[in-house]
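To close the chapter, one final illustration. This time we ask the reader to focus less on the individual chains and more on the assembly as a whole: which components sit near each other, and how the overall shape emerges from the parts.
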Amino acid sequence: MADEALFQFLHNEVIQYIYKSTEHGEMENGRCITKLENMGFRVGLGLIERFTKDTARFKDELDVMKFICKDFWTSVFKKQIDNLRTNHQGIYVLQDNKFRLLTQLSAGKQYLEHAPKYLAFTCGLVRGGLSNLGVKSIVTAEVSVMPACKFQVMIQKM
Amino acid sequence: MADEALFQFLHNEVIQYIYKSTEHGEMENGRCITKLENMGFRVGLGLIERFTKDTARFKDELDVMKFICKDFWTSVFKKQIDNLRTNHQGIYVLQDNKFRLLTQLSAGKQYLEHAPKYLAFTCGLVRGGLSNLGVKSIVTAEVSVMPACKFQVMIQKM
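The assembled structure is written out below.
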């Protein structure tokens, strides 16, 4: 629980800092999201390198996705993804019914508009992780009812 | 090991971001250090709240310092402080012979000048933790040989 707390608190600080440091500038919400996403991307790149040091080679794309949903998610968020769906054409939807970085926000609709900034880092994290496993993707997130959320991964074919 | 990695990578990103976002501004090294320290302070405040939820009341100042050196340090850095010294007049020196956030830098003297930015967050973390336990302090850090480092805590009497 302690480790989680450390990550959560630091994550919150990062969000606040990025938003505050751009308050008086020309940058709007979108650029903050991009910065958080890029930060997540680089962290994801690094993490996957450590996590897969002693892992067997992955069979295919689906095998990679399963690794992200189980091992990767567990080490970062202390639980697995609850549901993984795919259309078998390069789109994957990862559903987390109790996403760790949203549980600190009220479960009502009151803060729904703030959800994107709590998801951007994680979108980047997934994109970075996949990227280091040779899978190029675009990752977006959506929330309908807090703290559940869905990450959509669109694989970019080379 | 995974949790540590997550914290370390995010910590690095934060340092880089803060330094980069102030590159083209009027802010110099000192202000970046202050920002990192303040960030650490707020994280320390929050962490101590979680960690001490089920802890017995502390006897005295020394008891608080021991808690920081053992429990707090272990949850954040996965090891205890190696040596705690005090002059019994409000100055404590916490020595970590292998400080986690410095082990990623080369052990030589080459990067010694970069050490302060890797220590600022932790100085704040300690100050914030102590503050939430009712001990007001000033915390500074010094490195002579990497990755060993000393944190000096000066208690501010009210």
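The interface with chain A takes residues 1-7, 9-11, 13-14, 17-18, 21, 35, 39, 42-43, 46-47, 50-51, 75-76 of chain B (CB under 8 Å). DSSP finds four helices and four strands in chain B. With these observations in hand, you are ready for the problems at the end of the chapter.
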